[in-house]
Design goal:
By secondary structure, the protein is α/β, with parallel strands linked by helices. It is built from 30 helices and 26 strands. Helix content is about 40%, strand content about 15%. The radius of gyration is 28 Å and the shape is globular.
């Protein structure tokens, strides 16, 4: 009974002291849940584990050798039996009485299933009810135990039993309620908060006080932090010591709607979109419209880099560390809150923090990926938000926790249909509950923007009209998404005219190295960005051959030359990021350096190259890469590099149609057709390179993006070239349709009642769904840490899904599998994992053929 009181009190605190009471109310068409509604949900919460009184579960608690009997299925199956015990259970639970709270018998069953299905996935009654688990045996009566608990709720939550209107049935509300209850159960199960006491006679008052304290210590009650901002609307100076650019000011001063809002901010790389987003968050937070922020980025590297900036900005906005909202790094493999890393993981999913009395509470959300979105402020990858809409374990917990936040999605692109469809659905639920979201991009096409902002109600502009739209651009709409408003405002005054030089060098690593090293010898900082890790490694080795004895020209980490890509241990990724910013940062004095990387340097890293070499890629991606070229207005550039220059590495074959297979799929060198599947966009980009030898950024951003991504432009390419391009267009159309259909198949349908047979999750889909999101990676633990290629102790490595599809899924939780056959030879770490051999060295992790 104590745990029942704890979870009910925790739910009560979440609904009364966070914005979740408003969010759930909004789903019912109300401003807020009424006191009676809150009390009634708390009564249900008290009954969430009532199934544990069955004889089988109790026997297992006393004797671990007893047969394993759960507490969910043995209870819910009573809904599908005609055994006489059903009537006793109905009476003990008070089903007939509480049915009036929800409108009727079917409605109360739906609420009970949403209550009992709090372990991360919906549940449905099945045949095979085991009545003997519930009949009185000796002096033990499970039915009496249920009745005792139900009667206790009458004293705990008397308002629930007052005469009040019934809930309006809403399937979306049920899904959200389940997520909040699951969060309450997780928090209410923390034995360090809700400890056992000798005297449990007044457990509910103890539980209520502990719940309030937990919200305070974890930073989930925003009241003190909000009050610290003062009565007046915070100025931009709260987030930055520099005057705002016009686009930042306009974004910060957008209207604040109580029914939610969606904003799309399109502005060039380096124009301060991050600060604009945080300023928007501070204003919404001050107005009581959000309790926190989730900053979603496309890659782990981008997330870890931006996290530092967010921590520093929060320190500026909330100088008092005692009331500052905690900021967690929501990236699996990391354990960090407020910029402080945990000491280590402990058994039983515990974590040792440097200041246990402080960080243990503030870092609670960082300790497990399922909790990430329950933090006050979290910075992580987009997949954590997208998982809230998918049929995977604890999706409802993620979704309901996310409702508290301003959802900021950085670098939104139109190129991935599957991910865009998932984002659409996440936004639908978020805005339906009155939530707020901000999407940012330097290169978003008009078709995708229109669909996101209007839910597909409006047709996008034609190609010529779209190409003439202003840039930068803010598009803002309230939660109904019916009348979007567009605002144009300049970003920074910085502009650059980039010389575009296409050279057919992509398949010749030695030639790429020759061009890059020649520039480095003249004092230039040269950055090479390749589409694949394999070609990145090839160029790294070619660079080492080309420099000869002039090793000082090579990018290195602590004297060890290396490429920059994703397949390194977490500690080494941090070292790589720090090293590349030290070598290519705004204020570095280093000259004459060349580094080769993949997409890991496209976003968030503050690096500034004098010369950029890049593989051919869609123009929206290419513009992201150009953001690393002459990023800052530095005067002292080496001779010959005062003007920005991009060398686009092109394949030997000009006819990209030669890489289109009979199936219509593209498969060319250097990731053409594989990493970037739409050959039409690649062809359009190549044409832009041929047509315009200079690109003025950001003035040309809009036209470049629309010319290479707009459906009309892509159709024109197919019409011009015909042949294989027709089959490719059909393939891309089919792929887009299939991706949307696959997304719809994998998405939670919140129009279906929680617990309905169509709402159930298929457990075998978990793996495929997460792999499609990039969540199928495997973390490998090394029991006795070894020194990695850059001198850091390596305790854990992440294997990409394609390298480890033979390994069991760890669901992003604490790794359970360890590397074996570990040995260090010739500056490389060798190990086995799940029947496969691997090598890890300064070039990253690779499969090893013995």
């Amino acid at each position: 009974m104590a745990h029942s009181a704890d979870v009910a009190a925790m739910l009560e605190a979440l609904l009364e002291h966070t914005i979740l009471g408003r969010r759930l109310g909004h789903l019912l068409g109300q401003e807020h849940l009424s006191p009676a509604q809150t009390a009634r949900l708390c009564v249900l919460a008290a009954l969430h584990d009532v199934g544990k009184v069955n004889h089988g579960f109790q026997a297992r608690a006393l004797d671990k050798k007893a047969p394993p009997i759960g507490h969910v299925a043995p209870l819910i199956n009573f809904l599908r039996t005609d055994d006489a015990i059903q009537g006793e259970l109905v009476e003990a639970l008070g089903v007939r009485e509480i049915a009036g709270w929800f409108g009727g018998e079917q409605e109360v069953i739906a609420f009970l299933l949403a209550t009992w299905g709090h372990h991360g996935r919906p549940v449905e009654p099945q045949p095979g009810f085991r009545a003997h688990l519930w009949r009185k045996k000796d002096a033990q009566s499970p039915v009496q135990g249920i009745e005792d608990l139900r009667r206790a709720t009458e004293a705990w939550f008397p308002q629930a039993f007052d005469d009040a209107p019934a809930f309006r049935m809403s399937s979306e509300f049920l899904h959200a309620y389940n997520g909040v209850l699951t969060l309450a159960d997780w928090m209410g199960s923390d034995e360090q908060v809700f400890c056992w006491r000798d005297d449990e006679s007044n457990r509910i008052e103890f539980a209520r006080e502990q719940a309030r304290q937990a919200l305070q210590k974890m930073g989930l009650n925003p009241a003190r932090a909000r009050a610290s901002l003062g009565e007046k609307t915070p100025e931009f100076a709260a987030v930055s010591p520099f005057p705002p650019y016009e686009i930042q000011r306009v974004c910060a001063e957008l209207p604040i709607h109580q029914n939610g809002s969606l904003t799309v901010l399109e502005s060039d790389t380096g124009s301060g979109k991050t600060e604009a987003a945080i300023a928007r968050f501070i204003r919404l937070f001050h107005a009581g419209e959000v309790d926190g922020m989730y900053f979603a980025l496309p890659t782990r590297t981008a997330a870890t880099q931006l996290y530092r900036r967010v921590v520093e900005t929060l320190e500026r906005a909330f100088p008092d560390p005692e009331i500052r909202p905690p900021a967690v790094l929501a990236v699996p493999g990391y354990l960090e809150v407020d910029g402080t890393q945990a000491v280590q993981r402990l058994p039983h999913f515990r974590v040792l923090w440097p200041d246990q009395s402080r960080h243990r509470w503030r870092g609670w959300a960082a300790e497990q990926p399922k909790r990430y979105l329950a933090g006050a402020v979290a910075v992580g990858t987009i997949d954590q938000a997208l998982l809230s809409g998918l049929k995977v374990g604890h999706a409802h917990l993620r979704a309901s926790a996310l409702l508290r936040h301003l959802l900021v999605v950085d670098e939104v692109h139109a190129s991935d249909t599957y991910m865009t469809r998932l984002l659409e659905t996440v936004l639908d639920h978020h805005l339906n509950a009155g939530g707020h979201a901000l999407l940012m991009s330097a290169t978003l096409g008009s078709a995708t923007r229109t669909r996101l902002v209007t839910r597909g109600r409006q047709q996008p502009p034609g190609l010529e009209e779209a190409a003439q739209e202003p840039y930068p651009l803010l598009t803002h709409v309230d939660g109904r998404r019916r009348e979007p408003v567009q605002l144009h405002a300049p970003s920074s005054d910085y502009s650059k005219t980039v010389q575009i030089d296409g050279q057919q060098l992509a398949e010749h690593p030695a030639e790429i190295a020759r061009v890059a090293v020649a520039a480095a010898k003249k004092g230039a900082r040269v950055l090479i960005i390749r589409n694949t890790v394999a070609t990145c490694r090839q160029v790294q080795l070619a660079l080492e051959d080309e420099v000869g004895s002039a090793r000082e020209l090579l990018f290195d980490v602590g004297g060890v030359p290396a490429p920059h890509h994703s397949r390194f241990a977490g500690v080494d990724r941090v070292a790589l990021d720090q090293a590349i910013e030290a070598n290519f940062g705004k204020d570095t004095a280093r000259a004459g350096c060349v580094a080769v990387a993949t997409q890991t340097v496209e976003q968030s890293l503050d690096i500034d190259a004098d010369l950029l070499l890049s593989d051919l890629c869609p123009v929206d991606v290419l513009l992201q890469r150009i953001g690393r070229l002459h990023r800052h207005d530095r005067r002292a550039r080496p001779g010959g590099f005062s003007a920005p220059k991009l060398v686009v590495l092109l394949p030997d074959e000009r006819d990209l149609g030669a890489f289109i297979q009979e199936s219509g799929q593209g498969r060319g060198p250097c990731g053409l057709g594989t990493v970037y599947s739409d050959m039409r966009m690649l062809e359009a980009t190549w044409r832009l390179i041929e047509q315009k030898s200079t690109w003025t950024i950001p003035a040309m951003n809009r036209e470049l993006v629309e010319r290479a991504t707009h459906p009309e432009g892509l159709a024109e390419i197919v019409s011009d070239l015909g042949g294989a391009w027709v089959s490719h267009a059909i393939c891309m159309g089919g792929t887009e349709f299939a991706d949307r259909a696959l997304a719809d198949l994998n998405l939670i349908d919140r129009t279906i009642l929680y617990g309905d047979s169509d709402s159930l999750f298929s457990s075998d889909l978990d793996e495929r769904i997460k792999t499609r999101l990039g969540e199928g990676d495997r973390r490998v633990r090394i029991e006795d840490a070894v020194i990695g290629p850059f001198g850091e102790a390596t305790r854990e490595l992440t294997l990409p899904a394609f390298m480890a599809n033979h390994a069991a899924d760890d669901s992003n939780e604490q790794p359970e599998e360890f590397a074996t056959e570990i040995r260090v030879e010739d500056d490389a770490l060798y190990f086995d994992f799940a029947g496969q051999s691997y090598r890890y060295d300064r070039l990253g992790i690779q499969l090893h053929q013995q």
